[in-house]
Design goal:
single chain; five-stranded antiparallel beta sheet; nine-stranded antiparallel beta sheet; 339 residues; alpha+beta
């Protein structure tokens, strides 16, 4: 009986320790964050944009046939001339063999009739006919070689594979896209601008672009402005050129775009949403910043003037730091966060 009690007591102690250990495990707090960015003036307007590739190329076979294999996958980087896919080339090889045989036969006939022609015993009409057959056989041989080469699909440009439209075993039709190759060495952010505001935007209008998906904030480049309005929304598309040397910006990513009207200028300093700045019992202003290890830290700041929903940060933060804008009520020093 005593042994049974001891065993039960040990199990109880072990279970309570396990429960206590589980309770000690802290779940990261989910928050919303924003990167500290340069402040812009009252004339700044914010829009939603979509990242687009600089150029897209649809690659297809020139003849019909069954696709034997596709050698690339979506998102893969490819170089110009790289093999992308192959078509079943059995028929093309048979046609090439027949064309080579005809070429051999035509050349043999040319050599035999050459002697007769040189001796003057071959009518000129017949000699012209022999030469024509050689030229015809050569032309058919070149066509057969090209048909065989066309069974191999190579990349006409360098880029990344955007989409595969045909799989192994399927039949490809002439000019039917097999894959698309996207050039994203630079990208464009497309933004729809209301017709009442499009006149304030020029090719050199300053812009600031935020990509939450990868935590980027970057200055936009030259702007391409469309001249045709959407009939339903009465908006004009503009495209802002953005460098993308490391290819982190991908087509389809959503961007927040801040544009300055013509004649406007950026305001020096840094800015944050007003709601992210808090005050402690001593009247000290602070924000919660997120470190590289995803821990939250209380950071004292000093502020300047307010512009719309943004406030200038005079001291305490650097451009590019990540600041918590929502969910900070549950944070304490060193709390793990997810965003």
């Amino acid at each position: 009986m005593k042994k049974v009690l001891l065993v039960l007591l040990a199990i109880g102690l072990f279970s309570s320790c396990g429960e206590k250990k589980d309770k000690d495990v802290k779940v990261p707090i989910r928050v919303k964050t924003q990167m500290v960015g340069p402040q812009m003036n009252d004339n700044a307007m914010t829009y939603v944009g979509i990242v687009e590739e600089r150029e897209g190329t649809a690659v297809s076979f020139t003849s019909m046939g069954m696709v034997k294999r596709v050698l690339v996958s979506e998102g893969q980087a490819v170089s110009r001339g790289q093999l992308l896919a192959e078509m079943d080339d059995t028929q093309a090889r048979n046609l090439l063999s027949g064309a080579e045989a005809q070429m051999t036969q035509a050349n043999d006939a040319l050599q035999r009739y050459q002697l007769l022609h040189d001796n003057g015993s071959l009518p000129e009409v017949q000699w012209v006919e022999v030469q024509s057959k050689v030229a015809q056989a050569k032309s058919q041989l070149e066509v057969a070689k090209k048909n065989l080469a066309d069974c191999r699909l190579t990349a006409p440009v360098s880029g990344i594979i955007g989409k595969k439209m045909i799989k192994t075993g399927e039949t490809a039709l002439p000019s039917q896209a097999v894959v698309t190759i996207l050039d994203i060495s630079t990208v464009k952010v497309k933004v729809a601008i209301p017709e009442s505001e499009v006149s304030t935007i020029g090719a050199n209008t300053a812009s600031r672009i935020s990509i939450d998906a990868i935590g980027w904030e970057i200055d936009g480049g030259r702007i391409e402005k469309g001249v045709t309005a959407d009939a339903l929304t009465h908006t004009y598309d503009i495209r802002i050129n953005v460098p993308n040397a490391d290819r982190q910006l991908l087509p389809g990513m959503v961007a927040s775009v801040r544009l300055l009207g013509e004649g406007s200028q950026s305001v020096s300093g840094k800015s944050l949403p007003v709601t992210s700045v808090q005050k402690d019992a001593n009247g000290t202003l602070f924000v919660w910043t997120v470190a590289n290890d995803s821990t939250a830290h209380r950071t004292t700041i000093s502020v300047g003037h307010t512009t719309g929903n943004y406030i200038t940060i005079a001291d305490g933060l650097a451009v590019g730091q990540r600041v918590v804008t929502e969910g900070y009520q549950k944070l304490s020093e060193g709390t793990k966060v997810v965003f």
